[in-house]
Amino acid sequence: MTAEPPVQKRDRTHFLYLAVIAAVVLGIAVGLVFPSFAKGLAPLGTGFVNLIKMMISPIIFCTIVLGVGSVAKAAKVGRVGGLAIGYFLLMSTVALAIGLVVGNILHPGSGLHLTPDLAKKGQAQVTASASTADFLLGIIPKTLISAFTEGQVLQTLLVALLAGFAVQKLGTRGEPIRRGIEHIQRLVFRILAMIMWVAPVGAFGAIAAVVGQTGWKALESLLVIMVGFYVTCLLFVFVILGTMLRLMAGMNIFKLFKYLGREFLLILSTSSSESALPRLIAKMEHLGVSKPVVGITVPTGYSFNLDGTAIYLTMASIFIADALDKPLSIGEQISLLVFMIIASKGAAGVTGAGLATLAGGLSSHRPELVDGVGFIVGVDRFMSEARAMTNFAGNAVATVLIGTWTKEIDTEQVNRTLSGESPFDEATLLDERQG
Predict the structure, then answer these.
(1) Mean pLDDT calculated for residue range 168-195
(2) What is the pLDDT of residue 12?
(3) CA distances (Å), 417 to each of 249, 260, 281, 291, in order?
(4) What is each CA distance from 431 to 178, 187, 427, in whole angstroms?
(5) Domain spans of the chain?
(6) What CATH class has 18-434?
(7) 14, 72, 168, 221: most buried by Cβ count inside 10 Å?
(8) Is 202 within 8 Å of 42 (Cβ atoms)?
(9) 68-86 pLDDT per residue, tens
(10) Residues 6+ apart with CB under 8 A from 134
């Protein structure tokens, strides 16, 4: 009985995935065959982006407030929580930095020269807020509510941080408020899931307009960012995470991933790392990591250790800026990196949250670039699997490393499990966790 809803959810996800693919193919065909007509379809992509922009403030508020709660909660359990959070923030920063480096090397959006009038429209906004004093004053909202009603992302971020720390200071009295925000977050993400069903329409309009304006150049640029993103994720997982796992835990990353093979297949079919969360907890405990370490590291990692999402956010930002002939300066890239470190927390496994966070980051730094999110809608779904599997791989490696550093891992059980001497009992262990 309990297995039916996930299957139905996967079926719906597959249908949406196929619909986006069909829309992209149709958009490319229309853009190549009827370029003049295709250019007029741009409002379809713009409308979808506006729907995403509508969700930026509530998503950031809920995720940051609950994220601050997760930090404080995890820190209370002592060394394990503090070590896990420190590691997550470090690796997220490394992933973001790698995304920036690769994006600056590839420059996949260069040469597209899309909608130059849009760039001019935003120029006055950038110039007007150039001074540091004006920037700092602009972060402070007129009222607590105006940050949401005026769509000011940095102001929303400030209010969310203040609210998160205030809820923590309230202690047990703040629990009803935190639970209420959790319910609001579920509502917000449900609305976002409904909006994502319009993604095929938005993808069709955006891709058709871009191809109609630039021809094959657009397809080449989109292919470059897709391939570049996949290669970057592979390098991050097998070179950086693999080296850390070998040097610090003496474990072969290929053996670990073979042990987690079914989970990777599940993520591949659902495009969500969250679908494998219960199985990862059960399998890490069976591997030999202690229950307290797994219980702290895995759930916290799903909010704070989003390596694949971090790489995607920075590469996509550079792609959009280059495509609009408004490249980001190094200073803007660094400040965007800091924003993404904070704003990307807490949205793992939620379809469309990556687009909303991307739009929020661009809106906070270069508002004139937000409409460019529509250019990447068509390929976003193609990169979601790599994002999810990289996030999952990062959390699996993190659990082993935290267990090793805290000496809360049974190395003999690890060796038996990875060698196949102690196979994972699917029915028994998963039933125990559900029951």
Answers:
(1) 84
(2) 57
(3) 15, 11, 15, 16
(4) 30, 29, 6
(5) 18-434
(6) mainly alpha
(7) 221
(8) no
(9) 666 666 665 667 777 888 8
(10) 128
